[in-house]
Amino acid sequence: MMSLMSTMRALTVRQHNGAVSRSLHLTAIMEAARKGTREKARKKKVKVEVKKVGFIPHNQRDKKINVQRADKHVDDSWKQIPKDNVYVGRYYRWPVYTVVEAIKCHRETHHPSMYNVTNAPLNVEIELNMQGEKATRFVDNFQRMAMIPHKFDHGEDRKIIVFTKGNDEIAEAREAGASLVGGVELIKDITNGELLLTDYQYIIAHPNILAELVALRGLMKRKFPNPKSETLGVNLAEMINKFSSGISYSAIKDEYQQNFGLIKTSVGPLSMNDQQLEENLRYLLKNVDSMRPRREGRFITRVLLKSPPSSEQLKIDPFLYVPELYDKGAEKVKTEAARDSSRDEDTTEKVVATSAN
């Protein structure tokens, strides 16, 4: 009787008139079902603990997060032109100066009565549209050396080593200002470890020593002289002059906006005359424009002239020195020159391969 009562309990429910009565039976199965329902209800009431996360640097955050970033290509052509000298800059177009006017403005701010830095460098910021020939392709980062007509102290220690044979070529390289010039004996010193190539930033060679120079190809790697990088040629004086006094610059794409590139370099100090600074800038812009992709539209989008410690930046028109849009006729000439260069490079590769065999 007791075991029966443990498995089934009766509950008598009487109505108000007492005439009718009925029993509700609660079994063990029904108890288990009620217990599961209660457990689910308890779990819903449990508070979710939120873990506090500290500051995460931008380069370590989740790449899937879409952050709305402003377009770095500045286009103010839709803004109105200011009618006087007093206006709110963000509502109007940037004024465009000539190079001479911009240099004059910087000299006024660097006068002894103001910043008192009369020999400050004239820096150039060149903004590029790195869009390639296809919409999904972009121009790779590049580093080049622009030859300029007027030398200035660039503040860099550039050591140049030259490999050549012949007394005339060695004398020419030394007169041009090479740090070290030599032939087969110089190659032996490097092979024996008596001389380190890492002490020299630039390596230049004459074609007459190319067969012997192949022994150092493994040590030089990408610095191995070739016509494409203009480190292999007959005119040693011109190459040495370019790498010793030229403008070294790098075009770097933005990390988040792949079609935006920026070049920061200097064309000389403010103590140089206007004509010299303008000619250096012209040669620099032409060198940058030589990397233009074969597509329509602009490659150089904006050029600003700055001079520290002033934060003033003056916009100039670069299309007075280089073409604004893509020119197919000029590209044909450029392609022919590239073919000639590639032929020279193929000849160099054949000579190197023959020497290696």
TrEMBL record:
UniProt-listed GO biological process terms: translation
Region Disordered, annotated ranges: 333-357
Gene Ontology CC terms: large ribosomal subunit; mitochondrion
Pfam families cross-referenced by the UniProt entry: Ribosomal_L1
CDD domains: Ribosomal_L1
Subcellular location: Mitochondrion
Family: Belongs to the universal ribosomal protein uL1 family.
Identification of the protein by name: Large ribosomal subunit protein uL1m
